[in-house]
Amino acid sequence: GGYVQLTATSFDEILDRARGGGRLSPDDGCRLINAGATELAALMAAASQLRDEGHRRTVTYSRKVFIPLTNLCRQKCGYCTFARGPHDPIAHTMSPDEVLAVARAGARQGCKEALFSLGERPEETYDIVRADLARFGHTTMSSYLREMCELVLRETGLLPHANQGIMERDEIAALRPHNASMGMMLETMSLRLHEKGMAHWNCPGKVPAERIRTMRYAGELNVAWTTGILIGIGETREERV
After folding, report:
1. DSSP readout, 80-146?
2. Which residues pair with 113 in a beta bridge?
3. What CA–CA distance (Å, rounded) separates 200 from 220?
4. What DSSP state is assigned to residue 69?
5. Rama region for 110: left / alpha / beta (φ>0; ψ in -120 to 50; rest)
6. Residue 206 and residue 232: Cα distance in Å, rounded?
7. What is the rounded distance in angstroms from the CA atom of residue 100 to the CA atom of residue 67?
8. Distance, CA of 184 to CA of 181 (rounded, Å)
9. Across the strands, what pairs with 115?
10. If we measure between CA atoms, which residue out of 160, 117, 161, 159 comes closest to residue 141?
11. What DSSP letter does each residue of 157-220 carry, written as one string?
12. Is the full-model pTM beyond 0.70?
């Protein structure tokens, strides 16, 4: 991604349109993201103005306890420090007792939310995960997640927020009664990052169209959803836009 030289008029015109609630095109976004140091102060001032008008200046946060249901994953993301292989000594799928113990400890500390984070569909890849799921009475991690969300909500009152990667419509529908919200990072719209040697090589669940499809299902089911992009995994500025 090269730098785009902007005239003061074109740059100010884009900012004026943004301040007025106008829609910005991808080309506008590329012009803004490639802005030089001299335009940065004006860009930040416009962003601050829009923030104040849309959300005021109150910062909120979620008091949540982290529940890593499993750290095994079918994906092989080049930047991940969460997922573990089956022979890693800290590879683990939590039992219901472990889940409940962590949730109760969080509730005692004043937490209000239980963030379930887990690898994506690890049972498709690992025998050890299939064996663990069988012990817990399940065949899929999604089904087990649903039961654990229900358990935590019922026993502790913490509000579950499930983040398990791409899902089918019926999986989201099954989780919905037991989750205050759900989420999945879009991460990127770049297919280039799926090429060999790039961050998403051998990551079928990171194909942008698959993740958009999951989020479309969530919208159709009126599920409160958290998403975002990742910065610094090899994307260009234009791909961020």
Report:
1. -SS---TTSTT--B--HHHHHHHHHHHHHTT--EEEEEE-SSGGGT-HHHHHHHHHTT-SSHHHHHH
2. 64, 159
3. 28
4. E
5. left
6. 16
7. 9
8. 11
9. 66, 161
10. 117
11. --EEEEE-SS--HHHHHHHGGG-SEEE---B---SGGGSTTSTTTT-GGG-HHHHHHHHHHHHH
12. yes
Which two structure tokens, joined as six digits, stand for 71?
Answer: 């750290």
| Angle formed at CA 226 by CA 66 and CA 159, multiple of 5 degrees | 45
Cα torsion angle, 41, 231, 82, 197, sign = negative
Q: What is the C-alpha separation between 193 and 216, in angstroms, rounded?
A: 22
Q: Per residue in 180-231, pLDDT tens?
A: 999 999 999 999 999 999 999 999 999 999 999 999 999 999 999 999 999 9
Q: How far apart are CA 22 and CA 231, in angstroms?
A: 26
Return phi, psi of residue 29, to 5°.
Answer: -60, -40
